[in-house]
């Protein structure tokens, strides 16, 4: 029990420190906003400034914040629907950030005089003696040993109780002020669905053409060769039933070609819906994928429950593609795949300790992963700074 209490207290102090740093940072950005207000009123700069605050607020709250693009209306930045919110955030941040930041600065700034006044008040000249509770001079040990610890206790308790709550309040106000309205969310959603629908149709057409090409150039060609060999064998047997060696050779070649055709056909079927999913389920399929990865990979599975077949296929292909990238490009020494069932659906995270720098534009398969996930109304987040680590998070609905 004491160990648990100590761990809880330790986590709380970490929150206090993070919250204090966050609020002091908002004080700094509030001052910068006031000084650079004319420049920040330009929509493109206002968007970048607002995005910076959204990212910090999301990290403090532990809430994923979807990235917002640059002001995208070519030649008409004022026509962007989010521009009014970005501009409104400027005075809100200036007032709110400076006010709350000054409270933190006042609290932290008065901790130092209390810490110094308690043991060292006598080292100062009478005119320069430290003061407690703003204007109480410390001229004797009685004052130092009573008011000093009392000020330390009160300010420390205020920081412990207040900093996290104040920081969360600021972060929530930030996200609320910069969040789109219901109509804007609906418009954005329609745009995303329109784009993903077009991408899915293109991908579906390309996949059908690939399957048709594989069947035509591979399996169909082998079946034609088998038919021709069987026809020659049949004719040879009819012409001379005693020529068993020639007929046996044709039948052997036909048998080998049939086995090769079956192998190719299974490979085509596997790319449509992997049989391992039907045989062993998502957990078994992920186990097989991680075991076969060229980099040591740990699989951490929660209780996945019942997952729709379409979601299983997307997760399987996404994890397989991500681990292929890890083995080929990341120079990683280890990777982790975590899958959890959440209230909203299925959450999958693929992490590696490689060099990072993964970019969808370089053709590393990330674009294909995103396309598959978006087709099911899911969300993909790729965090891959230079130097690593790379974290790919998939959120898929399972309703």
Automatic annotation (TrEMBL):
Domain (Putative sensor) ranges: 29-173
Coiled-coil parts of chain: none
Keyword vocabulary terms for this entry: ATP-binding, Kinase, Membrane, Nucleotide-binding, Phosphoprotein, Transferase, Transmembrane, Transmembrane helix, Two-component regulatory system
Domain spans labelled Signal transduction histidine kinase subgroup 3 dimerisation and phosphoacceptor: 207-275
Residue ranges crossing the lipid bilayer per the database entry: 20-42, 94-124, 144-163
Signal peptide: none
EC number: 2.7.13.3
Name by which UniProt lists this protein: histidine kinase
Organism: Hamadaea flava
